[in-house]
Amino acid sequence: MPRPKRNYKEPFMSTFTFIGNFKSYSTDLLFDFETIYKLQLERFRDMMPDDYAKDFEEKVSIISKQKTNLITSESARAYLVTSLDFIPLMMRDIEDCIVGHLEAMSIIDITLKNDSLQEDPDHVVTLFVFKGHKLLFWYDIPFFTATKMLIAYHKENLINAGAFRDEWYGEPRRKARTEQRLWNNSK
């Protein structure tokens, strides 16, 4: 399975890679994830081990230093975040009608009584939507809503899922073929 090609000489690449494994990168990520990390730290600090909270604080500090003198695009961006900082969905250049739909979904999800702050942070999925340098809205969503979003927006998703596919599909198949070959050779 081919690995994603990255230019590590590109500015901010080391920061981008600790944020997530994306198909493409933009400096908007720095603004967005400074906000996301701060919110997640504020919401879940009491549930985080000390070393994990310190790691979040370090990430915020690194991003804050790097984003000086950068400007954001005026495009809308959406992220699903779970397990505090795992990103299964990232979309960029979202049309206003989709942003409106995502915002309207919050009303539906609130009526489902998603009382996520009482949950383990690993079981919380949060949707964050940004436009320009502003966080438009964020809210926790049920897992089934997150699953529907992953299916609905699979073409727009800018997460490079190659590593997941290899871990869950490629590696077990290679292992099975190797075991079969060893078994056949032992006869």
Strand order of the largest sheet: 2-1-3-4
Mean pLDDT: 81
Q: Could you give the distance between the termini? A: 31 Å
- In total, how many domains does the architecture comprise? 2
Order of helices and strands: HHHEEHEEHH
Unreliable spans are: none
The radius of gyration computed from the alpha-carbon positions, rounded to a whole number of angstroms, is: 19 Å
Strand content: 15-25%
Shape: globular
Which percent bin holds the helix content?
Answer: 40-55%
Give a count of the beta strands, DSSP E runs of length 2 or more.
4
Biggest beta sheet summary: 4 strands, antiparallel
Q: What is the number of helices?
A: 6
| Backbone structural class | alpha+beta
Describe this structure in words.
With 187 residues, the chain is an alpha+beta fold. It has two domains: 13-156, no CATH class; 162-187. It has six helices and four strands. It has helices at 13-19, 28-44, 50-66, 96-111, 143-152, 162-186, and strands at residues 76-82, 86-94, 125-131, 134-141. Strands 2-1-3-4 form a four-stranded antiparallel sheet, sandwiched between helices. Helix 2 (28-44) runs antiparallel to helix 3. The longest helix is centred in the C-terminal third of the chain and has 25 residues, at 162-186. The chain is globular. 20% of the residues are buried. The mean pLDDT is 81.
